[in-house]
Amino acid sequence: MRLQHLKQQMLLYEPTGGVFLWIASATSRRQSKTASSQATMASKRPVRITWIFVFVFHCVSPYHCADAVDSTAKLLSRPRYQTFYADAATRRRMRAELVAQAAVSHPTYSNSTSLKMEVVHRNMILKTMASAYGNATMKDTIAQMIARDSARVKAIQKRLAMATGVNMSRTVSEEAISAPVVSGLTQGSGEYFASVGLGTPATRSYLIMDTGSDLSWVQCSPCQSCYKQSTPIFQPSSSSSFKYVSCTNALCKQLEQPSCSRSRCQYEVLYGDGSSSIGDLARDTLGFTDGNKVTQVVVGCGHRNEGLFDGASGLLGLGAGTVSLPSLLRESFSYCLPHRSGTDSSTLIFGSSAVPNGAAFTSMERSQRIDTFYYVDVRGISVGGERLEISTSVFSLGDGGNSGVIMDSGTTVTRLASSAYRALRKAFSAGLPDLPKVRADDLLDTCFRMGSRDTVNVPTVYLHLAGDVTLELPTENYLLPLEDAHRTVCLAFGSSGSSLSIIGNILQQGYRVSYDNSAGRIGFAARQC
Length: 529
What we know:
Layout: H1 2-10, E1 18-25, H2 35-41, E2 50-57, E3 81-85, H3 88-105, E4 114-121, H4 122-126, H5 130-133, H6 138-164, H7 168-171, H8 174-178, H9 184-187, E5 192-198, E6 203-210, E7 217-219, E8 243-244, H10 250-253, E9 259-261, E10 264-270, E11 276-287, E12 293-306, E13 314-317, H11 325-329, E14 333-336, E15 346-351, E16 360-365, E17 374-376, E18 378-383, E19 386-387, E20 404-407, E21 414-416, H12 418-430, E22 437-438, E23 447-449, E24 455-459, E25 461-465, E26 469-472, E27 479-481, E28 488-491, E29 493-495, E30 500-503, H13 505-508, E31 511-516, E32 521-526
Parallel strand pairs: 6-13, 7-12, 20-30, 21-29
Antiparallel strand pairs: 1-2, 3-24, 4-5, 4-15, 5-6, 5-11, 7-13, 8-11, 9-10, 10-11, 11-12, 14-15, 14-31, 16-17, 16-32, 17-20, 18-19, 18-25, 22-23, 23-28, 25-26, 27-28, 31-32
C-alpha cells in the first residue's frame, strides 16, 4: 500500500525538469555463497526491499538552476528544460537581475594591467543615424540581419575555399545561394562595434569587431569611394602621430596583397562578399576607453571602401594573423557581447586581466592552411538532457581546412555542419510537440508560434567542448523571438550546407570569451561583462 501510494504521487508530476534518484534499502542478512543455498534460505530470511524515490525539479529561470545532485552523469544534475518568456520586458528584467548578481559575486578588472574598449551592438550606433535609415520594423531588422549573416558566411566559406584550393561550388551552402540580393549601402555589416580613439588628438571611431579578419583599417580622407558612417571620417593630416609605412618595411611583406605607390605600402583587403578596402598602410596612436594609449599601431588608411560596412568607421582585426591587433600587441584578449535587444555596453579587454577568474577553458585549434581563424574542439551537443548521436568527427578540423568549428564574432546565427544541424533540429522540435511549427525563411527553418502563451518550457541546449567543458546555454542564446503577432520564436541555429561549423554571436552573448593565445586556449565565463 505504501509503494502504491508513492506511485500515485509520482504520476502527478511530469519530468519536465531535471530528475534524480534516491535509492534506499532495508538491511538484510549476509548473503550465502551459492545459488542453491540462496534458494534454500529464500523462505527463511527477510527479503531486501528497495525504495526508489524520484525527485523532479523544474528550472523557472531563463539562465540557470541549482544542481540537484552530484552525479557522474553530469547532465542528470542539470535542467532538462528552461522557461522562455514571450514578453521582451520580462526577459530584459531577468537578464538585468542576473547581471547585477554576477557583479556582486565576481571581482572587477584591474585597469593597471589591461587596455579596454567599449563594445556596443550595431543597433545602438544606427539609432544615431535614424534619419538616414528610417524606423525599421522588427521584421525588417531581422531580415537585414539574416542578409548580412548569409553574406558573412558565404565570405568565410569562399576564403577557406581559396586558401585550400577547393572548388567553391562543392562547398557553398544552399543558404548562400538563396540569400536575397540587397544593397550594401543600406544593409551594413558587423553586429558589434568597438569604440576607439585614433590619432593625436584622438578622433573617435566605431570599428566592427571581427575575429575573422586581421588588418584593422579606417576610412580616410581624401575618400575616393566611401560609404556613410556615424562619425566624421578620419583626417590623417590632423594627426601629429600619423605615419605612412614604406614599401621596404617588413610589415608590408606580411600583407596578403601588398603593392607600392609613391614609396608607400598599399594594402587591398577583399572579403569575399563583394566588400573591400584599399588604401595606404600606416601607423598611428590608438586610444582606449580607459585612457591608455598605444603608439605606432599598424592600421590601414582606406581611400576606397565598398560593401557591407555602413555605419562603422572601419574594421578592428582581431584574428590570429600576424598583422592583427592581438598579434601586434602580443596580448591575450577577451570580449563580452551585450545582448542584441538591450541598451547596455560592454568591454573588449587586452592584457593580463583579459582572462577572468573562474573561466572554463577549452583548447584553441589552428588551421595549417589559414592562420586567421580561431577553432574550438566541439565534442557534442545535448538537447533536453539527451546527448545527440553526432560523431565527434563531424566537428573535427581536418587537414583540408574546410571543416572544424570556428569561433566568429561577426556571424550572428550559429551554423552547424549539415548532419549535426539535422540532429539538433529533430531533437529540439520533438521537445516542443504542442507548439505549432512554422518556417520563417531558408535560414530560420525551425520556428514555433507561442500564440497566447506568456511562457513556454523549452529543451535546454548544451554545447560540449574539449577539456570537459559544458556550456549550458541560456534560452536567449539559442532562441530568436521575431516579436510578431503570433509571438513566433526561432531556433538560432542553421545549417552551413557543408562540413564547416561556426559559433555565432547570439550563442556567445553574455559570456566573456577569452582568447589566450600564448597558452593556446579559449575561455568562457558566464555573465562577466
